[in-house]
């Protein structure tokens, strides 16, 4: 070996550990969480989630925008869960843009989703509920404030993840009719082979049309000394309900936040612990088992407490065995995807206008045909195509993807199975609101989730396009850097 070569070898041996230490330090994690109160400051206020508008006169429990920020020296990720039935993209985009002005988070690094509780203020017009503009603006301000608080509180952190099956809460609500049976849709067509929420002991129905996803996915975030900071979870249950009619409530999503805090003995930590339960692919599932003869009678809010307790208990037990990491790669990518819109035909439009002309103008519309006639007229003004924002996030070997729709369990299960990252969270009603996302097969079967309205308007081929794009984005974030 020459004198020069010996010097080069010595220099390499001295430099490589320093480079390795620098690379390792770049992946050192920091995190913070904050639950920003979003309870309305004024009542009465319109509530989303019903065929007719409902007004809340007070709050049974507080609503929140539950925020979590995880960062290393290379990038940062912002995750927000809003207690809302659905949240339109314009509000989410505004919150992201304004957050970027006051923090180091970029809009493409932030994922915002709605819980889909049916007892929160209206943010997007659907059926006969229309948004409350002052509350919409207030909500954006609170999201920005919540993320800013997280950014200012970032501290050295460690994260771990895992999954656990939690059966007994989720049941498919779309039931196949028996051979030869058909059902009437609100457009006067006897074509549906599906009954949504068929009731107990219905002689027309045969069996559920799919299988639910019982997986509870968990991301646990702690300070380096083990102090709980947050749990970000994902579970595909539509919502529970049982709310008194004139109250806003965070439903079982809010209950989970309180119960996981108690199970982890995190009630007195500083800064306060934040439990976050996002909605998975739950469009065709709910908390009612129609294979039984009946369901137990519950007091208001009782059932949501029972469900939240079962999920929180399973989560806490699973979290005892997760492995924590202090240094991890983080990555977020987004992509715009153009999708077709199912607009009404001239014949459907004229029929809808004729029906609405017979309805009283001083009362809410009664009956599905009139409600969907109004939706048909409003849908006529929609563009032929819409653009949706899709996102994939990597936190170590964990993946998170967004769907702007109420997404079927089949879609979520397919994405999880094919994802290169394990586990993968599929968070629905995220980064926008584009109605239901039935599979092409479900469009053929019909049923409520396919009926054209502002709550279900994407083209029949939207689901495979969204699913494929999300898998491509997962492949992109999981690719190793060389």
Describe the structure in brief.
The protein is of the alpha+beta class. Helices cover 30% and strands 26% of the residues.
Structure write-up:
Strand 15 and strand 16 (228-235) form a beta hairpin. It is built from ten helices and 25 strands. The chain is 30% helix and 26% strand. It has helices spanning 3-26, 89-102, 133-153, 251-263, 302-319, 346-356, 368-379, 409-418, 440-445, 462-478, and strands spanning 30-37, 45-47, 54-56, 58-59, 64-71, 76-82, 110-114, 155-165, 171-172, 174-177, 183-184, 190-192, 194-196, 205-208, 215-223, 228-235, 247-248, 274-279, 285-286, 330-340, 385-395, 398-402, 406-407, 424-427, 436-437. The chain has an eight-stranded mixed β-sheet. A four-stranded mixed β-sheet has the order 20-21-22-24. Residues 6-10 have low confidence and may be disordered. The longest helix has 24 residues, at 3-26. It has 482 residues and is of the alpha+beta class. It has two domains: 27-175 and 203-340 and 382-478, no CATH class; 346-379, no CATH class. It starts with a helix and ends with a helix.
């Amino acid at each position: 070996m020459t004198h020069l070569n010996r010097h080069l070898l010595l220099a390499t041996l001295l430099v490589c550990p320093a480079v390795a230490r620098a690379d390792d330090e770049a992946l050192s994690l920091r995190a913070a969480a904050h639950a920003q109160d979003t309870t309305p400051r004024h009542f009465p206020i319109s509530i989303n989630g019903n065929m007719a508008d409902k007004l809340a006169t007070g709050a049974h429990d507080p609503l929140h925008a539950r925020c979590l920020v995880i960062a290393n020296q290379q990038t940062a990720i912002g995750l927000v869960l809003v207690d809302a039935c659905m949240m339109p993209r314009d509000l989410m985009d505004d919150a992201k843009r304004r957050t970027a002005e006051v923090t180091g988070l970029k809009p493409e690094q932030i994922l915002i989703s709605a819980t889909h509780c049916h007892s929160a203020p209206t943010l997007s017009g659907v059926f006969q509920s229309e948004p409350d503009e002052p509350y919409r603006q207030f909500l954006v301000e609170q999201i920005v404030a919540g993320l800013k608080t997280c950014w200012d509180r970032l501290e050295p952190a460690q994260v771990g993840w895992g999954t656990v099956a939690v059966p007994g809460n989720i049941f498919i609500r779309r039931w196949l009719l028996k051979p030869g049976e058909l059902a009437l849709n609100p457009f006067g067509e006897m074509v549906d082979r599906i009954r949504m929420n068929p009731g107990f002991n219905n002689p027309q129905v045969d069996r559920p049309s799919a299988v639910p996803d019982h997986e509870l996915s968990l991301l646990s975030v702690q300070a380096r000394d083990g102090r709980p900071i947050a749990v970000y979870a994902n579970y595909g249950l539509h919502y529970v309900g049982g709310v008194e009619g004139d109250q806003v409530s965070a439903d079982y999503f809010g209950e989970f936040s309180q119960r996981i805090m108690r199970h982890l003995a995190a009630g007195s930590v500083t800064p306060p612990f934040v439990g976050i339960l996002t909605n998975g692919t739950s469009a065709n599932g709910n908390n009612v088992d129609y294979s039984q003869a009946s369901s137990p009678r519950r007091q208001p809010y009782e059932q949501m407490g029972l469900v939240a307790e079962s999920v929180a208990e399973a989560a806490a037990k699973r979290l005892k065995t997760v492995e924590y990491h202090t240094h991890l790669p983080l990555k977020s990518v987004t992509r715009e995807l153009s999708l077709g819109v199912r607009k009404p035909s001239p014949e459907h439009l004229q029929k809808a206008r004729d029906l609405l002309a017979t309805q009283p103008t001083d009362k809410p519309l009664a009956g599905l045909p009139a409600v969907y006639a109004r939706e048909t007229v409003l849908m006529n003004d929609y563009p032929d195509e819409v653009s949706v924002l899709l996102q994939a996030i990597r936190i170590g070997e964990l993946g998170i993807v967004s769907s702007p729709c109420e997404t079927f369990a089949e879609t979520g299960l397919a994405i999880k199975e094919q994802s290169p990252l394990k586990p993968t969270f599929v968070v629905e009603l995220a980064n926008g609101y584009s109605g239901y996302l039935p599979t092409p097969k479900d469009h053929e079967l019909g049923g409520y989730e396919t009926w054209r309205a502002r709550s279900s308007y994407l083209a029949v081929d939207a689901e495979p396009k969204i699913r494929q794009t999300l898998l491509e984005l997962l492949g992109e974030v999981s690719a190793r850097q060389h």
